[in-house]
Amino acid sequence: MNRLFVCTCGLLVAACTSQPAQETTAAEAPTNQIALTEAQHKSFGMATGGFETRLMHRYVQANGSVEAPPQRVATVGFPVAGYIKSVGVSVGQWVEKGKTLATLESMEAVQMQQDYLQTSSNLVFLEQELDRQRTLSNEEVGAKRKLQQAEADFQVAKAAASALEIKLNMLGISPSNLKKTAMRSALGVVSPLAGYVKSVRVNIGKAVAPNDVLFEIVNKTNPQLLLKVYEKDATKIAANQSLTIQNSNRLLAGSVVLVSKNFDPNTRTLEVRGQLKNANDASQLIAGQYITAQIDVGSQPISALPEAAIIRKGETAFVFVEIAPRRYERVAIKTGLEQGGFVEAAFLKKPTNPKIVLKGARLLEAELTKGASEEE
Fold it and tell me: Measured at the alpha carbon of residue 232, what is the angle toward residues 226 and 235, in degrees to the nearest 5?
């Protein structure tokens, strides 16, 4: 009887000590592995393989703005002081080259016309006097001093007349016509190029000076893209590289036309200028508009996987690797470029001879997650 009691106690003790060992083994079982039945494997349509080498383009992102080239922007003023008599345009209006933007009345312009007419008349007299002195000098009747004085007076008057002609032309007054018509007090302020009126800084009756800005005209045909490239990418950029920008859900194509040699030490950026290839696309952009460009800096062979093979969870990515027939393990990877349905990828810790699941990865993830949910 005592012997039977001892044996029974021994069995109970053995049972108690073996139970925690079973629980520990279950707790240590991998949670990133899954085994499929033959039926599941067939229904999941599993397919394995390896990395594929693909030629992928690398891009540098650059932020910037749209800018009209200097030759397509005009700041309009007037060479003389006066008062605005009328204004003929509004902001946003398209104007042709030579269009009168405003009229201006100027006493200074009237005085300039008067001076020109007087100088021109005096020039005729001085030319006649010079001819007379030359004749007298040739006949050895007149003094040399008088001839020299006549030549000097004529040259001074001629220079004054030439200078006044240039000034009148700048005001839009034809010197040759001035001799046939009356002097003008009202002069036109005209646009030096075709474009849109960006700003109007005058009104009727406003006094203006020669250094005042009266209008701004911008022609946005074929605008430039002014981009900033950060220091780490500066050496990758070169002229003629392709670029794209996003505008109103459309992708617009262009190219790099100029890479500045000046590096900005404050922003640690390099200035790059680009241009769109299509004139119609360029016309959709607005001067001053903020843009983000992707500059194609070349292609190179990349180890990649199909997007369907990659499982993403927040900032991390995984693939499933076959470790035994119908048994799979989830392994972390690092991803990079994404193009044409493929993703640049590399193992963080490469398994031995991995067979990567290329088809059925999402079904494996769902089954693994379901299993984890059921255990919880």
Answer: 70
Buried b (16+ CB within 10 A) or exposed e, 300-331: eebbbbbeebbbeeeeebbbbbbbeeeebbbb
Do 166 and 211 reside in the same domain of the chain? yes
- CA 82 to chain CA centroid, Å, is 41
- Burial (Cβ within 10 Å: 0-12, 13-18, ≥19) of residue 294: middle
In this structure, the answer to whether residues 96 and 210 fall within a common structural domain is yes
Q: What is the pLDDT along the chain (376 residues), one digit of tens a residue?
A: 444 444 444 444 344 444 444 443 334 446 789 999 888 888 998 899 999 999 988 889 999 999 888 888 999 999 999 999 999 999 999 999 999 999 999 999 999 999 999 999 899 999 898 888 888 877 766 678 888 898 999 899 999 999 999 999 999 898 888 877 888 889 999 999 999 999 999 999 999 999 899 999 998 777 889 999 999 999 999 999 999 998 878 889 999 999 998 888 898 999 999 999 887 787 778 878 899 999 999 888 999 999 999 999 888 999 999 999 999 999 999 998 888 899 999 998 888 888 999 999 999 999 888 855 555 4
Residue 33 inside a domain? The answer is yes
Q: Which two tokens stand for residue 187?
A: 């002069």
Contact 219, 196 (CB under 8 A): yes
* Residues 303, 305: Cα–Cα separation, whole Å: 7
Asked whether residue 22 is assigned to any structural domain, the reply reads no
CA atoms within 13 A on the CB side of 310: 24
**CATH number, position 180:** 2.40.50.100
